[in-house]
Amino acid sequence: MSRTNRSSLIAILVIIGGLVAVAFVNSSSLGNFGITLLSGLFQGMLLFLVASGLSIIFGLMDVLNFAQGAYFMVGAYVAYDAQHAGGLIDLTQAIPDPNLRFPIAVLIAMIVGALLGIILERGLLRPLYARPIYQLVLTFGVALVMAEIIKFLWTTTPYSWTEVFGVRDSFFELFGQRFSTYRLFVVGMGIALIVLIALLLRRSRIGIIIRAGVEDREMVQALGINVQTVFTLVFTLGCAIAALGGAVAAPFLGASTTLGDIFLLQAIAVVVLGGMGSYEGTAIGSIMVGLAVAVAQDAAIGTSFSALPSITPMLLLVLVLLLRPSGLFGNAR
Fold it and tell me: Could you give the domains of the chain?
């Protein structure tokens, strides 16, 4: 292990250990401590679903996609609409069982996110790969357009999830406290996604091609591989993951036009904290930020510091950057 990685690991252990210690001290019982930890992991995994796509797209394509939060928002609206009766995408008649309808709604949200990602990459971004400032302006503008389309289709009224299905509305008991099974489901799915994407990028043939195309595009093209198609696949994957995050968040957070902005800001903080373009750093940073926000929410109860949870990601980001300006696993770029 290099000296840089060793110092990063020590910083991670210190920060996470400190967060867990604060959570334990603030908790009145083991049950409340467990609730805080599960809430932190749940928020961290939701955040990872936005930040991972952002990190993959930037790390492999050098494109900072400011529309990533909008894809998260679209995923939430599509999944909500597919699960509930009376919407634009109403599956209640075709699939009466809500337990079966939910995974199909999530799949539809991912497909919509992937299709919108292909449109953005092939139709708008492709001519701007050599112009990073134009990319930022373009993706920011696309996010605004997508938000306006959402308002036109579903109005500005927030939607609260009302459809009952097994995983969302079941609980389990531990240390005398009730824990939401759905939170545990999201945490498990997030961990599985971390492993699957890591294997895809590090162990699969397509992952080798992607990384080779980033390092030496001309050589890969000389081998008869269409690098542009591979990059489109990467961008599509990042957008589909963001839509997946919105679809999974909808049963807990509902669907609103502000959902994307909230998660985008935190996702950018996570990507910078973990190190720009570092997938491993993004995964660890998401967990750290999720735990920090959960601890801040618990600490803010009964006090006048109601804004503490919302500013916690930035406070944590500042703390890490003071120690390591390139982030936990980042290199100078």
Answer: 3-323 (1.10.3470)
Q: Which residues of the chain have pLDDT under 50?
A: 1
The pLDDT, as a whole number, for residue 313 is: 82
Question: pLDDT, tens digit, for every residue of 104-157?
Answer: 999 999 999 999 999 998 888 888 877 878 888 899 999 999 999 999 988 888
If 0-12 CB within 10 Å is exposed, 13-18 middle and 19+ buried, where does residue 32 land?
Answer: middle
What does the DSSP 8-state code read for residue 89?
S
| pLDDT of 247 | 92
122: buried, middle or exposed (CB in 10 Å: 19+, 13-18, 0-12)? middle
Element (H, E) at 179: strand 177-180
DSSP annotation string for 107-145? HHHHHHHHHHHHHHIIIIIGGGTT-HHHHHHHHHHHHHH
Q: How many CB atoms lie within 10 A of CB 71?
A: 34
Contact 127, 134 (CB under 8 A): no
- Greatest Cα-to-Cα distance within the chain, rounded to the nearest angstrom: 64
Contact 113, 242 (CB under 8 A): yes
Residues 6 or more apart whose CB falls under 8 angstroms from that of 13 comprise: none
Q: What pLDDT shows up at residue 11? A: 61
* Percent of residues in the chain assigned helix, strand, coil, to nearest 5: 75, 5, 25
What pLDDT sits at residue 230?
Answer: 81
CA angle, 58 as apex, 291 and 329 as ends, to 5°?
A: 50
Phi, psi of 172 (to 5 degrees): -135, 155
Tell me which H or E stretch contains 271.
helix 259-274
Chain centroid, CA 242 distance in Å: 6
CA–CA dist 44, 319 (Å, integer): 18
